[in-house]
Amino acid sequence: MASTSDIRNGMCIEMNNDTFIVVEFQHVKPGKGAAFVRTKLKSLTTGRVLDHTIPAGHKVDDVRVERRKFQFLYSDEDVDGKKYHFMNSETYEQTFLREAMIENPGLLKEGTEVDILYHAVNETALTLEMPQYIILEVTYAEPGVKGDTATNTLKPATVETGAEVRVPLFINVGDKVKVDTKTGAYMERVKQ
């Protein structure tokens, strides 16, 4: 058991027969009334994000999680939907996760090192954390027009994983771009 003063970003808690990860939190002490903690929680089973207010000093059930390094191998489809296969970097044991457990699965490139969070007590996979940025090659983009580099206009481009990313007009086929895995947004062009 932990108290509200222990709440941090990335902390996993159990509530209403579900496991949540703390996305944001804010300790609030209004001028009138009792203090409380305003949180934004993401369900690790459904992916839903909800706002929740916890009174100060209230106990929460924290979940002990373990981070394990895995390497993305490939994805395939079965009757239940898309599965993503991973290999443990230390034991070479293979596992798979359903598409719903992965945020921005379209940015996963074969060979990418990821962290999978496991519930330490019952050994179940909770969620996958990709690196903050990933470098991908542009496989399709409309050609840019000379002189259109002064504006902040973006165009759609397809990267090597098949995902679509909005990029500036000067990006062409074959360029490598750095993409934020949380938002799927273009960050910068990478020199080759």
TrEMBL record:
The answer to whether the entry has keyword Nucleus is no
Domain Elongation factor P C-terminal, residue spans:
134-189
Q: Where is the Translation elongation factor P/YeiP central domain?
A: 67-126
- GO function terms (MF aspect): translation elongation factor activity
What InterPro entries does the record tag this protein with?
Elong-fact-P_C, NA-bd_OB-fold, Rib_uL2_dom2, Transl_elong_fac_P/YeiP, Transl_elong_KOW-like, Transl_elong_P/YeiP_cen, Transl_elong_P/YeiP_CS, Transl_elongation_fac_P
What GO terms fall under cellular component here? cytosol
Q: Name one GO biological process term.
A: peptide biosynthetic process
Would the keyword Nucleotide-binding be found if you checked this record's keyword annotation? no
Its pathway is:
Protein biosynthesis; polypeptide chain elongation
| Cellular localization per UniProt | Cytoplasm
The cross-references to CDD domains, in alphabetical order and at most eight, read: S1_EF-P_repeat_2
Matching entries from Pfam families are given as: EFP, EFP_N, Elong-fact-P_C
Q: What keywords does the record list, in alphabetical order?
A: Cytoplasm, Elongation factor, Protein biosynthesis
Describe its function.
Answer: Involved in peptide bond synthesis. Stimulates efficient translation and peptide-bond synthesis on native or reconstituted 70S ribosomes in vitro. Probably functions indirectly by altering the affinity of the ribosome for aminoacyl-tRNA, thus increasing their reactivity as acceptors for peptidyl transferase.
Q: Which family does it belong to?
A: Belongs to the elongation factor P family.
The protein, known as: Elongation factor P
> Which organism is this protein's natural source?
Flavilitoribacter nigricans (strain ATCC 23147 / DSM 23189 / NBRC 102662 / NCIMB 1420 / SS-2)
Q: Which gene encodes it?
A: efp
